[in-house]
Amino acid sequence: TTTTRPAPISTTTTTLPPPVSLRIGITPSLAFGIPFVLAEPGTGIGRANALDVSVEVYATAAEALAAAIAGEVDVVLPDGRALLTALAGGACFRAPLTFIDQDSMRLVGRSDLITADDLIGRKVGTPVGGPGEVALRLWLSAGRVGWDQVPVVDLPAADLPAALEDGRVDAIIWTEPIPARALEACGGEDCRYVGDIGAAYREVTPLNVTCRWQQAHGDDGMTRLVRAWLEGLEYLLNNVDAAAALAAGRLRLTPEEVADRWRERGWLQAWAADLTDDQVAMLESYAAYLVDAGELAEAPDLCGWIDGTWLAEVAPSLVSLDAYDC
After folding, report:
1. Which residue from 41, 26, 20 is spatially nearest to 75, judged by alpha carbons?
2. 219 shares a domain with 314
3. Which of 61, 95, 114, 177 is the most buried (most CB within 10 A)?
4. What is the pTM of this model?
5. Is residue 268 included in any domain, yes or no?
6. Confidence at 250, pLDDT banded by 50, 70, 90
7. What is the pLDDT, as a whole number, of residue 188?
């Protein structure tokens, strides 16, 4: 798909707006390359969009989300389920675009496992409460198999290959490279990839801006933020090694390690910066899951959170919302 690059705002001394502070809260994860690009003065992106960008690194996503709710940061990027839970609890955010859209979860099991029905009564290993369990349950629901019919064994992700190999579980579900390692440990004759998990579950993470920041800086601020984000992604994709050098110090990795992992683990494809019906539908599935699991009494209003107005202003070709009025 060819996308027209958004025109920069004027940068003459007479028309450039005063810089607006934008504090982004993240965790030490490979996912967060774009914030470092925006915060680096040398890229010129923050300055060109009259944004004074800073990055705060928190130990956990829960701490970053709490900081945003408390007003300590303006942008936060937790997973969609965590944000839905916060919204249901009264937190207020606006999501102008999708940060991550990734078909990342894979199920590996014994060679006789083919469909969701085949998992009935069989043990599946994954960290309980994590995205693997959510993906498994959504896939089981799509196959009309009850969650209580498939026992889940709580195991750390690093232990999953050994657990499949030694027979503690009949299948494991997690992101690569764990499933590939599990398949290698179990052997191609005895184990296989099972099902199309991506048809039922994808990792969809919106860019979340606090309502406090959005209300303070209005449509102009949100438009500048969205434009800067798109330019930051473009810079990263065109300058992977330079962007990796910006992120490496905060991740305690070398620039080469960061760049290699971005490429090998699919991050360059996972960063989305668009807004589509499929993404909103996936978030709707998350909300339904949380209600079914008893974690929420009711789903929050998705289109009170997701808003394509500013992305449509900057890059209309990146907004594909026909089924949802967001």
Report:
1. 26
2. yes
3. 95
4. 0.89
5. yes
6. confident
7. 81
